[in-house]
Amino acid sequence: MHTKLQDEINYVTKGVIVYDLIAIILLLITSTFSKEMLLGLIFGTIIAVLNFRLLAITIEKSVTMPVSKAQIYSAGQYLLRMTVTGVVLFVSVKAPYIHVLGVAIGLLSPKFVILTKTFLIDKLKRKEA
């Protein structure tokens, strides 16, 4: 895998861990923390990070393909990632030991980390320069 891409994946993964710690602290403060919520958060986070890594692999492979093959490959991988997400949400709804809200928070964690990096951290760096 390309070094810059791997660095970005590592950055987001570390950011997701920090995000989860903040989420746990907020859950403790609001008294909504439970074992089910923690399991849901962990489950959703693991799937989100794996989906993010799959996306990176898909992008890296599709760049080297001809346009028509890249479109088919990308669409297939997208369908696979969304199916995995759907199965995870279905399992979280059906399983009494996993809180669906915790899973949803975990699944959205890479999105929040990327948005935070884009809108807060990068803007602060620009002001300093």
Automatic annotation (TrEMBL):
- Mind telling me which residue stretches traverse the membrane in this protein? 12-31, 37-59, 71-91
Matching entries from InterPro entries are given as: ATP_synth_I
**Cellular-component GO terms for this entry:** plasma membrane
Q: Which domain of life does the protein's organism represent?
A: Bacteria
Cellular compartments annotated: Cell membrane
Sorted UniProt keywords: Cell membrane, Membrane, Transmembrane, Transmembrane helix
Instruction: Report membrane topology.
Output: Multi-pass membrane protein
Q: Which Pfam families match?
A: ATP-synt_I
Lineage here is:
Bacteria, Bacillati, Bacillota, Clostridia, Peptostreptococcales
For this entry, the protein name equals ATP synthase I chain
Major place of residence: membrane
